[in-house]
Amino acid sequence: MIIAGVDEVGRGPLAGPVVTAAVILPDNYDLPGLTDSKKLTARRRELLSSAIKEQAVAWTLGEATVAEIDTINILQATMLAMQRAVVKLNVTASMVLVDGNRCPDFGIPARAVIGGDGLEPCISAASIIAKVARDQLMKEYALEFPNYGFDRNSGYPTKQHRDALVEFGVTRIHRRSFAPVKALC
Q1: Residue 99 is labelled as binding a ligand
Q2: Whether pTM exceeds 0.85
Q3: Which keywords accompany this UniProt record (predicted)?
């Protein structure tokens, strides 16, 4: 059975896309320390992300844009991004394991695994790749929008980010459907 693990990063931030990853690991992978991305340092995530990409049978990223998030809501945008990641895999999975309590329709069997990013290695791998990719994207946005601290807060509603929204306004990468941003529009 070919199992793809899927996870998302970025449901809670006020800015930026939601990013997902799908990963199919080989039976004989060697990834010491593989676990939920939130339990790892940024440096360890980056090292593991590179190792996962080298060893994976297949891996891809999916994304839903800020406009999609604002149009169809964050949950539906997350499901869409997950579908996009799975469809892009260059190896067809026979089963998909998704971190969380729900799965989108992949057209193949799928199962939601609560806490799966710490339980299923393929989901852990997906969580790491997605986190590293989204963090890098937010660092790039920090260059364009330096007042918001995206390189440090990844778009999450920290005090600095909320204060910057009040002082400098809403940018094109802010989720206008999220209450703290909507209040300023």
Answers
A1: yes
A2: yes
A3: Cytoplasm, Endonuclease, Hydrolase, Manganese, Metal-binding, Nuclease
